[in-house]
């Protein structure tokens, strides 16, 4: 209630101050930094109060997809710090990196003491919907009394992947969570979104774009800009503003030149690198590219803002606080917070694997005083809700006569049968309200054990309860040496995907993943969805989420410590028979894939990195030490580098 009263009287003790904010983005194509970035970061006469600088493709090494350390992080941080405006001194507020996506926020030292609530989060949207080859990172701060959120993203590539880019944007928006209010991106007073958004131009060829640029017909080119069209249709970046583009396309250039792509692909020039914003009191002064940087196939972009920041007058604030304290003393025993909840039992019905289901409740303040609420942990529990449930917002405040919609989202990645939880909604200075959530989990081959699937004579959803009971108790016969579903996916990829470029590095639309899941779980006379990228991602999902991992948990660390191929072979021979079959079957497929590396661009290190981390996975609550993570990759690499034909036989 105190915070509500202070917030409602904010105008009495705050004033607006104009602050200059420099936002920059650059896809650096895995290159080390140039000697100086000054003509980019210090190109304005006056020094900005704050910098937010984002990079994409900071590190393109194969290890970067799995391991967190990268020398490029320190190199580019140093390049930024040493190239800030000479007219002021700066301190780093925060730096966050997800593989090749890095964001650094700096502020003038004179203002450093007026920053608080610094937080950051990452969201991978790449392989398996979470790895960091694509995705976003975000940093939020409270500058004086205004909350600012900076988001740096690298969205899905390729001309025709518009839907995937839109999905990446939604995933980042939904999944970035700063844990404490304001939790989500859109709850902040001001949001600055920058990055390689990868939107291209539709219906224009390379030569047509060049011709129109020579004729200075920029508006006619931008009519075909995918981002502009998608935003106008309300499919992406709703509520965001982008200033007029007056600079040359930022992609794709021949390295070390200002010439557009002259390769055989001759990609049409496009404005892949963008800066958008949303919020009050934000005034963008300039929007530009920096053509003098030629080391990458992208050009850096920057925007300068004059943003209104609320500054607290401490003398006036103390006076208002005294008034509020007096009011609180008077009301403390007279009025208690009162709310109504439209439902205290939230039913989710049948929920499927990797298909989130959401429900909402309405909490209305029916009392005379503001209400502050939050969900609290129960005794002996680590969190206020189960891992499969997400609550947004999980805390907040409601003024008298107002209401708050609280969203509950269930996303199942393991088979739970029936699922339920009791949530405690706590009202400050008031009572606790108990809310139950429950539902049923539909079985899927993706979350069933290898041993059970090898005993299933039918697709998993066509099996009778008795057939499943016999399979789960291992009383029925083993019918397949590897799960039928695994064979179907590998067989499709063997026939259709061996020559596909970057087979296990590109991502698929969520709808296509769902279609393949349903095809595998229900069975069908129709062929599997003809989408190589989607089937490849489903294969990874299958191996990642089977009830028991390919290499059992108790053997994972031992495998990661193997120093030579003989030790690795010995460990594989100790695997349960069906698990050994799956491990060797995947290895044989990957070796076939490597035979076509000239066409598909794969290499041993990349495949070992991706599949080693999945087939030798950990329980959710365990994280690898760096040497163990590398050991998993090395373990699988031994099998991809050596002859394993002697292991492809029944165990004697």
Automatic annotation (TrEMBL):
Q: Where in the cell is it found?
A: Cytoplasmic vesicle, Phagosome membrane; Early endosome membrane
Q: What is this protein called?
A: Rho-GAP domain-containing protein
- Which domain of life does the protein's organism represent? Eukaryota
List this protein's GO terms for biological process: phosphatidylinositol dephosphorylation; signal transduction
Q: Pfam families under this entry? A: Exo_endo_phos2, OCRL-like_ASH, RhoGAP
Which family is annotated? Belongs to the inositol 1,4,5-trisphosphate 5-phosphatase type II family.
The molecular function terms of the Gene Ontology recorded here are: inositol phosphate phosphatase activity; phosphatidylinositol-4,5-bisphosphate 5-phosphatase activity
Matching entries from SUPFAM superfamilies are given as: DNase I-like, GTPase activation domain, GAP
Q: Which residues form the Rho-GAP domain?
A: 468-647
CC terms in the record's Gene Ontology section: early endosome membrane; phagocytic vesicle membrane
Q: What is its main location?
A: membrane
InterPro entries to which the protein is assigned, alphabetical: Endo/exonu/phosph_ase_sf, Ig-like_fold, IP5, IPPc, OCRL-1_2_ASH, OCRL1/INPP5B_INPP5c, Rho_GTPase_activation_prot, RhoGAP_dom
- Keyword Hydrolase attributed: yes
Q: Which organism is it from?
A: Oryctes borbonicus
Keywords (alphabetical) are: Cytoplasmic vesicle, Endosome, Hydrolase, Lipid metabolism, Membrane
Q: Gene3D superfamilies, per this entry? A: Endonuclease/exonuclease/phosphatase (3.60.10.10), Immunoglobulins (2.60.40.10), Rho GTPase activation protein (1.10.555.10)
């Amino acid at each position: 209630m105190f915070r509500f009263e202070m917030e409602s009287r904010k105008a009495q003790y705050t004033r607006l101050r104009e602050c200059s904010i420099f936002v920059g983005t650059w896809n650096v194509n895995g290159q080390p930094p140039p000697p100086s970035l000054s003509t980019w970061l210090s190109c304005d006469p006056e020094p900005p109060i704050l910098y937010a600088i984002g990079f994409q493709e900071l590190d393109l090494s194969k290890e970067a997809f799995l391991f967190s350390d990268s020398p490029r992080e320190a190199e580019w941080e140093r390049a930024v710090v040493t190239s800030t405006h000479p007219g002021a001194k700066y301190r780093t507020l925060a730096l966050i990196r997800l593989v090749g996506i890095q964001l650094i926020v700096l502020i003038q030292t004179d203002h450093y003491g007026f920053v608080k609530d610094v937080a950051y989060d990452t969201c991978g949207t790449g392989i398996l919907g979470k790895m960091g080859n694509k995705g976003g990172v975000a940093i939020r701060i409270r500058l004086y009394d205004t909350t600012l959120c900076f988001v740096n993203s690298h969205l899905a590539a390729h001309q025709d992947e518009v839907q995937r880019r839109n999905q990446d944007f939604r995933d980042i928006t939904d999944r970035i969570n700063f844990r404490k209010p304001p939790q989500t991106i859109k709850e902040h007073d001001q949001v600055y979104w920058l990055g390689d958004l990868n939107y291209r131009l539709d219906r224009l060829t390379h030569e047509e774009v060049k011709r129109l640029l020579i004729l200075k017909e920029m508006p006619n080119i931008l009519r075909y800009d995918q981002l502009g069209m998608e935003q106008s249709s309300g499919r992406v970046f709703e509520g965001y503003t982008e200033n007029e583009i007056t600079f040359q396309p930022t992609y794709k250039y021949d390295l070390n030149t200002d010439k557009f792509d002259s390769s055989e692909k001759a990609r049409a020039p496009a404005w892949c690198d963008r800066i958008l914003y949303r919020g009050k009191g934000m005034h963008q002064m300039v929007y530009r590219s920096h053509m003098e940087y030629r080391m990458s196939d992208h050009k850096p972009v920057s925007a300068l803002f004059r943003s209104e920041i609320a500054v607290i007058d401490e003398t006036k604030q103390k006076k208002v606080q005294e008034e509020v304290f007096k009011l609180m003393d008077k009301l403390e025993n007279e009025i208690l917070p009162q709310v109504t909840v439209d439902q205290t039992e939230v039913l989710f019905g049948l929920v499927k694997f990797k298909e989130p289901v959401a429900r909402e409740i309405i909490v209305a303040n029916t009392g005379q005083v503001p209400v502050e609420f939050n969900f609290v942990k129960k005794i002996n529990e680590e969190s206020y809700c189960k891992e499969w449930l997400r609550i947004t917002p999980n805390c907040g405040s409601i003024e008298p006569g107002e209401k708050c919609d609280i969203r509950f989202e269930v996303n199942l990645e393991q088979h739970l049968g029936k699922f339920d939880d009791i949530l405690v909604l706590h009202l400050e200075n008031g009572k606790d309200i108990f809310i139950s959530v429950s539902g049923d989990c539909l079985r899927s081959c993706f979350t069933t054990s290898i041993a059970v699937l090898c005993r299933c004579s039918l697709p998993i959803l066509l099996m009778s309860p008795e057939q499943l009971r016999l399979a789960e108790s291992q009383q029925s016969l083993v019918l397949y040496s590897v799960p039928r579903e695994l064979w179907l996916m590998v067989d499709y990829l063997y026939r259709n995907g061996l020559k596909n470029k970057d087979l296990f590095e590109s991502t698929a639309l969520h709808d296509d993943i769902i279609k393949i899941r349903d095809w595998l779980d229900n069975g069908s006379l129709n062929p599997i969805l003809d989408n190589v990228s989607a089937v490849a991602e489903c294969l990874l999902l299958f191996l990642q989420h089977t009830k028991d991992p390919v290499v059992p948990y108790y053997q994972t660390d031992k495998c990661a410590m193997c120093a030579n191929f003989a030790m690795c072979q010995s460990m594989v021979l100790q695997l349960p028979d069906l698990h050994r079959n799956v491990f060797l079957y995947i290895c044989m497929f990957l070796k076939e894939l490597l035979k076509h590396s000239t066409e598909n661009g794969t290499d041993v290190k990349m495949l070992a990195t991706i599949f080693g981390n999945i087939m030798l996975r950990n329980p959710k609550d365990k994280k690898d030490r760096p040497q163990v993570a590398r050991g998993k990759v090395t373990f699988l690499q031994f099998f991809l580098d050596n002859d394993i034909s002697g292991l492809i036989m029944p165990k004697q």
